[in-house]
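Thread: Modeling a multi-component assembly for a lab meeting

Hi all, long-time lurker, first post. My supervisor asked me to bring a structural picture of a complex we are working on to next week's group meeting, and I have zero experience with this. I have the sequence lines for every component (671 residues in total). Could someone generate the structure of the whole assembly? Inputs are pasted exactly as I received them:
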Amino acid sequence: MSIFVDESTRVVVQGITGRDGSFHTARMIEYGTRVVAGVTPGKGGRVIEGPGGARVPVFDTMNEAVAESGANASAIYVPPPFAASAIMEAAESGVEFIVCITEGVPVLDMTRAYAFVTDHGVRLLGPNCPGVISPGKATVGIISGDIVTTGPVGVVSRSGTLTYEAVGQLTGAGIGQTTCVGIGGDPIIGTTFIDCLKAFAEDGETRAVVMIGEIGGTDEQEAAEYAGRSLDLPVVGFIAGQTAPPGRRMGHAGAIISGSSGTAEEKIRAFRENGIGVARRPIDIVHLTREALR
Amino acid sequence: MNLHEFQARELFRDAGMPVPRGRVATTPGEAGAIAADMGGAAVVKAQVHSGGRGKAGGVKLAGTPEEAEAHARAILGMTIRGLTVHKVLLVPVENIASERYVGILVDRAVQAPLFMVSREGGVDIEEVAATNPAAITRLRVDPRFGLLPHQAFRLGSALFDAPSLARQCATVLSQLYQVFMKNGASLCEVNPLIATEAGEVKAIDAKVTIDANELFRRPALESLRDLDAEPAAETHARAAGLSFVKLDGNVGCCVNGAGLAMATMDLVKYYGGDPANFLDIGGSSSPDKVVAALEIITADPNVQVILFNIFGGITRCDDVARGIVEAGKRADIRAPILIRLTGTNEAEARDILAAEGFSAFTSMDDVVRAAVARAAA
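Re: Modeling a multi-component assembly
Sure thing. I ran the full set together rather than chain by chain. Output:
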């Protein structure tokens, strides 16, 4: 099994004619993801040719794209000024799941978009995230199929390349994954660590979870408490940013220690207090996961 | 992006907030002249992006123009938490009856703007939050409706008992919310908000942080950036589209992705080394970005070794390899470069590097250990 995406996922790509949108549309199709439509306002009527003879119709609006293609998920690659609007358009169109890859979305825009998708009962992943991949089934976003393999481990992370590093090491050690989710590095995001832990718990095949956090905010602490209280799966944790100075934004908009809160130390302490094994080095994620699966 | 107090006060005044007019001086003589204009007495305040200015001796009360000049002479050029003071702000002296704290920020836990107000004004709010959390009143604002009048009055009443002061305060809070939304702020703070002995509410301090993601559509705010307040390397990095933070160690780091960059710094520390910087070259790395990154890292005299950690995805390893080779041709790089790369176009990258006499590691653990050993040698 898997969470959020699988063989039944039918994706519409918002911003499909842009540089990133067209590149990753081809990569998703190559992996076997069913990309059924694209949207770029003003470019409706075109057809995007993909690998293996795939032909993806382009529409002006999400409503048309969903009505014509029966899409149930969207992947957003539009530039930051238009990203929040694209999220809200997707929420209205009837898809159940929205993945926003765009980095640099103004945070106040996101507070409105977040309220809007919540009212519509739609799941949002991101923004500023690499998306989600269920090995052997589908990838929605930008995670490469080359680094994953099927298996019993769920991976959830706030980061992009650090996720690849951890997943690559797991795969290299012969430990496969049910689903790998990047929830994004921004302060306001749709799907949280806790949402992913709950979904992995309900997935019949996930037997352990790797949770990769970083400095800033208290999401990891809340997820750790949830895991300690009501999760039946073993969890392996890693926190990036132990050497980050306070008050400085470390690349991700959300990766900042404010005052004394959001430090790596307090997150690691919360992990330990709730029975989560903490990897000090990325390579230790492999060792701890192997133990967790025993 | 942090604004200086004098810049934040202008945004507040534009919104109609009761902020006494201040003037900026860059020399002691100017400060004395401004104080004379103000009638002699003035408060002289250091303009740096740091809290704790008062404790550091950066805020002084002057009774005469001569005193203002002397205070400005002491404050200009002083260092507060590593930042040199280049400007002072002079503001009128107020008769303070009571001091309050008001602030609004984007709160990740409630996924919305959040007001925080307290009767414990004029002190470090972080400390109040830690020692006496009950003294802080919080209010989540629904961004679709804004701060509603009854909510503003409720907060005003939490801060002041007298109805007249509570009403004035409610107006100030509504204006502060307008400043916050209109300028794409992630934080607006007044500490202290005062009531004068004459019964007037006034904002006598101002702190505003702008969400960096908003600057593309607010060029007027971008122009307020104070380039003197950051190391030159950070200005250079921003122009090149790199995310960079200077640190004190000797292992220069060049990584793709913020999370991996932090994890790399942590691993350097784990093996007994000290990172010289955080540097994320971002997703789509052109060779030019890598050249700029190497220029920035090598400009730091502390750097003993340069560590590349690249996990190719969108980032193509061959682009990074070309950048390293190109940088080596353009400039004399004295520190040894240790490279780890894996992922997209790894084989091409290894060929490019091998032709120039470089080799590359495949494991993050190995390259970090090797870099720490070189830095210590």
